[in-house]
Predict the structure.
Amino acid sequence: MSSRSLMKHLANVRRNTPDISEGVPIPAFSIVQSNLPLLVQEGSGTVRRDGSGAGLEYDATAFIPPDADVRPDNLHDQRDQLILTHPPALAGRTYLVKLVVDESGMGDHKTAYLERVRKG
């Protein structure tokens, strides 16, 4: 069974593509991929990024296809956003991408560590 068959959620990927007005970049997010298949699992924790022992805290983990273009940051210093579109009960739930890695090393999927955006 491939991991893609387990990706029961769908999300839009939004990326900062700023508008440069009078030399000042103004954040402007646009959808760069619609209905990305993924599996989101809520649960906070800390992942070690390197040998320094520095930890990265997260609120959820997403398993995404290995060819998905999902970035923790870009040229404009803004994290991609994942906005769930399916299932309907979770539609609109938004996460910021903090880290994307191929933990298995097998190229079957990537793991994204996420920060949930709380409304209000």
